[in-house]
Amino acid sequence: MAIAAGRRLADRLFSSNPIHATSKVSYEYVPTVVFSHPTIGTCGLTEPKAIEKYGQENVKVYTSRFSDSHYGIFDMKPEDKPKTVMKLVCAGLDEKVVGIHVLGMGSDEMMQGFGVAMKMGATKADLDSCVAIHPTASEELVTMGTWGTSPQESGAKVSPLNGAAAAEPRLN
User: Fold this and answer.
1) What is the mean pLDDT of the chain?
2) Which of 9, 89, 150, 156 measures 20 to 30 Å from 121, CA to CA?
3) Which residues pair with 155 in a beta bridge?
4) C-alpha distances in angstroms, 11 versus 4, 5, 8, 77?
5) Which residues, including other chains, have CB under 8 Å from residue 59's CB and lie 6 or more apart?
6) Cα first-last separation, the chain
């Protein structure tokens, strides 16, 4: 937050661009990490907060628990290998992603990208449309739940669903 807040303050104080006169930080969907062992990454609402805000009937939660592939070669019983736990909290008919929570190896590195996706209005279908990078822990977040059961609605300005081409940049 310090970098973002500092940039907005510098914009307000020193920029000659009038659009920066009221520049401020958005405190919604801020990726946060606890550098513990294992690391914890979170962005957005918890399940209870989402239920409080949107109502139980409007919240759908996806979870996953697995042993990270990093531990695959360790000579240990599967139940003794450290686990990674993930939760995806979605809300509304379009299943907009309103919370992502990860406890486990690599959660610190995953959260930045998923935070961007959430700020852009990602839905469960948007995550489903992403090609999973295998073998990684983060692929779990784009393969959760039963394939094809989420509403096929995108939060993107240009939908990436069904193989659509990515949006082109606006040019001068």
Assistant:
1) 88
2) 9
3) none
4) 11, 10, 5, 55
5) 47, 50, 51, 89, 90, 91
6) 32
134 part of the active site: yes
∠ CA 159-163-169, nearest 5°, is 55
Separation between Cα atoms, residue 61 and residue 91, nearest integer Å: 9
What SS3 class is residue 60? strand
Task: List residues bridging with 76 in a β-sheet.
Answer: none
Interatomic CA distance for residues 131 and 153, integer angstroms: 17
Question: Given pLDDT bands bounded at 50, 70 and 90, which one contains residue 161?
Answer: low
- Residue 69 and residue 13: Cα distance in Å, rounded? 48
Q: Residues 20, 37, 70, 134: which is the catalytic one?
A: 134
User: Tell me: the pLDDT tens digits for 88-107?
Assistant: 999 999 999 999 999 999 99
